[in-house]
Amino acid sequence: PDVIIADLDGGTIKIPECIHLSLLPEPLLHQTQSTLSLVLHPDLEIADNAFPPPRTAPSNLKLLDKEVRAVFLRLFAQLFQGYRSCLQLIRIHSEPVIHFHKTAFLGQRGLIENDFLTKVLDGMAFAGFVSERGPPYRACDLFDELVALDFESFKEEEASSNKLQKHIRELSEQLYRNENPNPHMAFQKVPRPSEGSHLRVHQVPFPLLNDEKVEKMFQEGVAKHSITPASTRPERKCVVPAGPPVVSIMGKCGSVFNSARRLEVVKSCISFIFDNKTLETEKVMLTVFHQRSYSAFKEAH
C-alpha cells in the first residue's frame, strides 16, 4: 500500500491514497509547468492570440528529450541557488568534512516551513550531492554555471517566453554535445560467432599474416585516431564559482536567518520533549537558554 508505481510505457503514475506528495514551492511549480508546456506543446502558448506571432521552428526529436532535461536542470539550479554560501568546510580531520547549514539555507530563502525542500535536504541524495559538489576546487560543469547565474537573469527569462525558449535550447544543445562528443566517429562491429561454431569438424585453417601489411594497417589506424579528437574531455579543475548570495525564493528582501534558526531550535526541543528523548532535550535546552540570554542582553544594550 505504500509503493508508488511509475508505468514508463503507459505514461502513468499510481499513487496510493495513504501517501502525501509534497509540491514544489511557488512560484517554481507554476514556472516549471509553464516551461514544460512551452517545450512539449509550443502551440498552446499562442493558441488564444487573435494575431499569433510567427511560429518558431519545432524542436528536433533528438533534442526534445534534452530540452525536458534542461527544464529540470534549471529547476534544481533555482532551487539550490546560493547553497554554497551555506557550506562549511572543516579541515581538522585527515580528510576535509563538509557540513551544510540547512536551517540557514531554508531561513534565508523563506522556506523554513516548506515540506518539499525540507524532505529533499534531509534525503541521502542531497547528502551525496554535498559531499560530491561541496569541495571548492574541482571540475565544474553546466550545473555549476547555472547555480552561479544572477537571480535577476532567471526572472528576465521567465518574463519573456522567447528568451526562455532560447536558453532552454542552448542548454539542450550543450547536453547533447556532452553525450555525443564525436558524432562522426564510427566503430566497427564484430559479429558474435553462432552457437556450436566451436564444435565444427572441418575448420578452415587460419591464414598466415603478413608482417608488413599488419604494420602498415596499424600505422594507418594510429594516424587516423591521432587526428580524431578524444571522445572524453579531460577534467580541468578550477575554483567553483560561489554565485550570488542566498535570496528568497518568494521574492522577499532581507534575511530572517537568525529568527528562523532560533525557531528551528525551539521546534526541535519541543519535538524531543513530546518524544520522551531526555538526552537530546537536555542538549538542545542549553541552546534555547543561551538564545534567551543573548536576546535579553541584546535588548538591554
Describe this structure in words.
The structure is a single chain. The chain is mainly α and 301 residues long. It contains 11 helices and 6 strands. The strands form 3 sheets. A two-stranded antiparallel sheet has the order 1-2. A two-stranded antiparallel sheet has the order 3-4. A two-stranded antiparallel ribbon has the order 5-6. A hairpin with a 4-residue loop joins β1 (5-7) and β2. α2 crosses α8 (161-179). The radius of gyration is 28 Å and the shape is extended. The termini are far apart. Mean pLDDT is 78; it is low at 253-257.
Give a quick summary of the entry:
50% of the residues lie in helices and 7% in strands.
Return the string of H and E elements: EEHHEEHHHEHHHHEHH
Termini separation (Å)? Answer: 58 Å
Mean pLDDT: 78
Helix tally? Answer: 11
**Overall 3D shape:** extended
